[in-house]
Amino acid sequence: MSSEEGEDRKDRRAGQERLETGVPRLDFITKGGLLKGASYAVLGPPGSGKTVLAHQIAFYHVKHGGKVLYVTLLTESHARMLTNLEEMTFFDSKVIPEKLHYISGYRELESEGLKGLLELVRRAARQHEATLLIMDGMDAAREFARTDLSYKRFLQELQTFVSIIGCTTLLLSPHHEGEVHPETTAVDGIFELSLWLSGPRAVRELVALKFRGSDSLLGKHEMEISERGIVIHPRTEVQFSNPQESSREDRIRMPFGIPRLDESLRGGLLSGSTTLLLGAPGTGKTLLGLHFLLQGAREGQPGVYFGFYETPPRLLEKAAGVGMGDLKKYVDKGLIEIQWQPPLEHNMDSLAERLLERIHERKVKRLRVFVDSVAGFRSAAVYPDRMPRFFSALSHQLRMLDVTTLYSDETALFSAGVETPQPEAAAYVENIIFLRYLELRSQLYRLISIMKMRESQYDSGIREFAISDDGIIVADTFQSAEAVLTGQARLRGEATDNVKPPMGAPSGKKKPKRGLLRRRRS
Amino acid sequence: MKTVMVVDDELDIAEAVKSILEDEGYNVVICANGREALRSLDGTRPDLAIVDIMMPVMNGYETIKAIRRHPEHGKLPLLIMSAIDPSVKPPEFDSIGLLKKPFALKDLLQRVQQLAPTKPRETT
Q: Which residues get modified to 4-aspartylphosphate (chain B) (predicted)?
């Protein structure tokens, strides 16, 4: 092989270099960016974000030393198009026209057809030394083609040319349901943008349908458009589809700081494990989770509260009311972080990204996380059937980061059985702690039990607990009712007159201290 | 103006090369196979022939051998432009350079400039 031929091989490999798009997580989906010199179809209905996506990529490319030729085949003027983009944070008027050059190919197309358009693009691309070519409005080119074959031929000639000059190409076309685009067979990759309604909510998605020459995360990914441009949220379960085994061997116990509960857990939850706090509304899941974070902080372990319902001041106030006043101290010190998700329309994957990114940013060991609650994610799910796979992937990722996680989730207020909103949860969490009410002789009792604890012994006894001024107090095994977990409590024969009131309930003249009564009064 | 003959059955590549070389000041003639190229030699009198290997009617190797035997154009500068791996190119063609498809613009221009030098294109 001659040296020149060796150079050829080297350059051919260089031809597989990537063009980073600068669109958050698009390069993650394509495992590194668009292939240099390749061509991509960007399809989507009007308003789906094709032009924004193309410009976001264009401005990023220019910022990193590239040159862009933007060819419009539309009747809309460049000035009007740019006016619509001026509010975007990535927009930079200074690079126009030197580095981002606009030409209209419509007149050439009208007078000379596809051949004339091809020649115009060839000359302009070379003249401006374009490394990125964007052709916006390819439907016009298609309409001027006599046949699909001649249109494909035009595309093939265009692709061959741009490949030689090492110019990556985006072909933007409007797309309507069921429409077939001839370019989809010719291009190296296809990105379809969509905009649809899920109930009252507008859902934007990017579908990666084809990506030649590289592995990629094909399929639907939700996206958002803001003044910062497009942000893509790859499906969490696809992002972490090849989980690795956890490398952390020195696992420790993570107590709640509630003596009887910690005894039942043989010292606490195992670090790096995932636990579901399952219970009816008001049973004390949030307080139990806060106990967990607070105990961690007392031991010097950082914590994150990732919640949807209680604002940070209200959460602190609630904690202070039941003897957890030092929670604020640890929040102020930054050892415990409250990440409150305001009641907006969320995207399930972006919530997971937010949580994981924050964990990565903090770079701390033995982190405790309390997600309050799973229902917050569930309400953000456009495709509810994704939930089990989503949570399985998220949980595994948290495990990999050595995070000890609590999820809270709600059951019905009163039911004859354990009806979890997500039965599959048992498969992806190591531990389940069940909180519930028991109605007995017109009294409400709170019960706590450990339903599952993987990789550890545990006490499966059902215990009564109360929310007191000193936090949660867990009592001895509850013995006055049977079959409590089915909610069908029956009194034991002659013992009917000896039923004790719930913990925290008034007894005699002694001033009650337990939170249950205090709560009732308020 | 120098003339480059592009012998390739893949018209999109031939057209792309033609467009690029015309911009560089060359006259470019496209032939779809070896037989067509041999027939055109006398009429076009090229300064360089860029020859694909895998072509119908007469392949690139046969075309090159036929050109080398040609009484008038036997010394015509040649360049192979093909997707074949350089290692499978027969030794008898060692003296002829290979531009491996897909190729980069600078390689094309560099090879052509070496084999058929012309003045740099004037820019306006």
A: 52
